[in-house]
Amino acid sequence: MTSPTPTSTRPLEGLRVIDLTRALAGPYGTLLLAGLGAHVIKVEDPRGGDLARDNSPYVGRDGVVVEKRHDDDISISHMTRARGKYGVTLNLKDKGAADVFADLVRNADIVVENFTAGTADRLGVGYSAARAVNPGIVYCSLSGFGADAPEGGKAMDVIIQALSGAMYTSGEPGHPPVRIGVPIADMLAPVFAVIGILAAIEQRHRTGEGQHVDVSMLGALTSFVAIENWAAMASAGMAARTGLTVQRLSPFGVFECADGYVAIVAVHEKLAQGLFRAMGQPELSDDPRFATRDVRVANAELLEATINAWSRTLPTAEVVALLEAQGVPVAPVRHPEDALVDPRVVARKETLAVAHPSYPSEVELRSVGVPIQFSAAHTGFDDVMPVAIGEHNDSIYRDILGYSEDQIAALRQAGTI
């Protein structure tokens, strides 16, 4: 792939986004849009701002701390999710907010919200209100159960993991379900939202009309769970929950070493034979219980126990070296802190360093980048972030909406912004 020239633009340059989102799912979606070059205006309630502003841990003059000690300490969650965005305040419950919202929408291409279903319409900032002032607007609702769901039904990542079945698929048979360690529903749904937004923008190029993009967290995660046919596996007598391995692909999964764990994939004949040679037991290739793929699956528990009996006696590095020498896909199970500084992802800017604007931390803090490479464009975040609530009120309301200083002062006096 050809590296972009320093003067190349970013893919979504020229598109403006009104970001009504909060917490994680919505802000991650708008973070991706910002990283792809869109001009994102983050709208916060002047009475407190985004919920993520109060997420521990914080970083500031005392370094990284669990409890906020100073007014200029910043939540690392907020610092991560607000990168590349311009922050304004707007009290959507105030009687003057509808007019300001309308002016924002007139000057925008995209609106993203992740209120509970029905809330945006009640506040007067739903799709119908946006379309009334800008028929070309692409309006995305990201909710737990869909924009047409009954009112209420608050959705958090752990709730969606539970309802989607994803939590049940993790863990050992007979043991409690396992919450996936990263907020998978909160991260997956906004990826679908961005796909939907960009598809709607492409359709607008042909029709001139915007539309409502509706993504549910439950639908997004359940669609991933549905990649496996659970009814078929049950009918065939295959266990739905196998813990660290996938027995229908055996040997495939995580195995214990003397000092850690290793992931091994040896699903095909050549790979299985390489695994057996690495184990010093090439005769297993001729064992009637392991000689073909189907019998390995049928005897998965015995095969996995045999592999674990070998791998547990060796350090992780030696297991990796032995398997790599045989061409078997293998990797150590790494701590996330180590994974984030993998030279490959650092070089591709798939993780990025984040820092307090005034107080550099002794600990390097790394967070998400944009894991997409382009040959004629670049990704990344503008060197801007709403540190204070309403950080960019004057520049956005004056320079983009054309409000006078007196108008802005009146909005402040009324509590609208």
Features:
six-stranded parallel beta sheet, 37% helix, 417 residues, 18 helices, three-stranded antiparallel beta sheet, alpha/beta
Give the topology, please.
Layout: E1 16-19, H1 25-35, E2 39-44, E3 58-60, E4 63-65, E5 74-75, H2 76-81, E6 85-89, H3 97-106, E7 110-113, H4 119-123, H5 127-133, E8 138-143, H6 157-164, H7 166-169, H8 184-207, E9 211-216, H9 217-225, H10 230-235, E10 252-256, E11 261-265, H11 269-278, H12 293-298, H13 300-311, H14 316-325, E12 330-332, H15 336-339, H16 343-347, E13 351-354, E14 365-368, H17 393-399, H18 405-414
Parallel strand pairs: 1-2, 1-7, 2-6, 7-8, 8-9
Antiparallel strand pairs: 3-4, 3-5, 10-11, 11-12, 13-14
User: What class do helices, strands and sheet pairing give?
Assistant: alpha/beta
Question: Care to count the β-strands?
Answer: 14
Shape: elongated
Q: Cα-atom Rg, whole angstroms?
A: 25 Å
Which stretches of 5+ consecutive residues score pLDDT under 50? 1-6
Proportion of helical residues: 25-40%
Could you report the average pLDDT, rounded to the nearest whole number?
94
Placed side by side, the strands forming the largest sheet appear as 6-2-1-7-8-9
What composes the largest sheet? 6 strands, parallel
Q: Compute the number of helices.
A: 18
Termini Cα gap: 46 Å
Strand content: 5-15%
